[in-house]
């Protein structure tokens, strides 16, 4: 804590500490070990090829080396799954499950099985699109179709995303497939190709998306270095803005306040002029109550009472703002002084501006581990086969094994039954608890992500606190304040960071669960359940915001005093409550400056990028690259500029919050005497009319 007697060698309370919340530290280590075990188990059982590569109806991969369905020497026409586009009968819903067949290439002509059966050459071609069992089959044509070993007809198809889809094209507004508008469905009926259009709509969307992605990729290949230049300009502009805040913060705040007062004053004048102009006009004296509700809002503008109401509201706002300025002017000056002081602190700890990159890198690791584990867990199911049949069968829907199905009692009792791939699943203990492992994966992601963010916050808070609690700034600061703060956070306060991030992670997981339930209940008609769910979502959203606010200030107190999480959270909360007006003023002033800074940086860089990439700057008109979509690099520069500005201002915001809490602690714990000198800067002491008696000024 603060020393009882001033010592010139004392460097503030941030160096007096011990390990905190050790139980939570141990719990975090155990959870991470368990998370690693879950990842190893998932990677052992999972197979991401199930997400990327298509399969046939037996769950076997198409065109993958070492699998039964390996076809041809080279992609992309190797092992393409094809779904025969037969029209299932509604009377036999069991056959509605589509049969996917791995083929070496897609069919390129119209043909039916009945017409091909009488032509050996055509039949040989047709069997390329039948199941392997039909190769040596001696069954009659109708029996083959009944057993669904071959499709009833073929239609011209094209490969898309390693899948065969109808080759639909439009010629002069007419939908055609293979230059025909009708096709034989294999049952003696001619159908219009528009019946295939609905099934291919999503395929066309995929194709159009793919073409769009290729054009966007081309734009990036020719403009990437200009995008980087734009982002560098945004970074330099952010740095310059932070430096200028030391000199211009007060001017910007007061100019904005004066502008608000002038705008409200003009509003009052305009409302009065409109009110006076309507005097004596017919119908202008009708009251709002008598007029009632009107959908055309312009009607209200012809009433004197409307402008009178606007006039009164603006006058009240103007009066409130003027009174707030009169009574809060000193607190506004303190907020401006703290912002200027934060700019000086950032200047002495320049490495802090690059520290968000470390946090971003660790967050990317958390996201990558979570995503890969989720994919491996979701693909660690095994192929499950079930009995499908057209007639009544007691074994319908039961699991089966394709290897032994033909020799089982099922085929004897149900001759038309087939053992087909149903879905990926499993009946082992591991497969039964997959949903639990997925939940644990999501929970650990939130916990570790919040821990990384907390580590970044307490590191920055420790670095800026070392600046504030240095009596002689910057001489009494450590040589590497950021690295020193990072080391203290990991060595002493891993448990406290784990505690705070655990509480936040629990609330976030509950919110995700509520969102999932809300998604599942969208089709439900229970209005009470929807109302209750909406209330819970609102409550937990507010709780998450409050916990984030509390955690942020608790981490600052941990960085300053080294106390445990609960003590730090309690002390920070009551310290802020005792200075609630100062908190509100500082929060609004900093919010305004950050908004102004982001708007200025993103707007300026975005406008510059727009004029450059649209070749409207004559000096560099020939330098701009040719683009398919000029909005691609412009949006990239705008989004990147916002992220860069947000990263810089997040560091600056943490600096302001840290110095503010240090400032409040300094006021409450010290009195400027020789035993308890103030650590605040000379400008703040002058503003508060405080002095350090018998001590040299910092």
Automatic annotation (TrEMBL):
The keyword Phosphoprotein applies. It is found in: Cell membrane; Mitochondrion outer membrane. Its main location: membrane. Pfam families: Choline_transpo. One of its GO terms (cellular component) is plasma membrane. InterPro entries: Choline_transptr-like. It catalyses: ethanolamine(out) + n H(+)(in) = ethanolamine(in) + n H(+)(out); choline(out) + n H(+)(in) = choline(in) + n H(+)(out). Keywords: Antiport, Cell membrane, Glycoprotein, Membrane, Mitochondrion, Mitochondrion outer membrane, Phosphoprotein, Transmembrane, Transmembrane helix, Transport. One of its GO terms (molecular function) is antiporter activity. It comes from the Eukaryota. Coiled coil: none annotated. It is a multi-pass membrane protein. The chain crosses the membrane at residues 21-43, 224-244, 251-269, 307-328, 349-371, 444-469, 490-510, 554-577, 589-613, 629-649. Choline transporter. Belongs to the CTL (choline transporter-like) family. This is Choline transporter-like protein. It comes from Climacteris rufus (rufous treecreeper). The gene is Slc44a2.
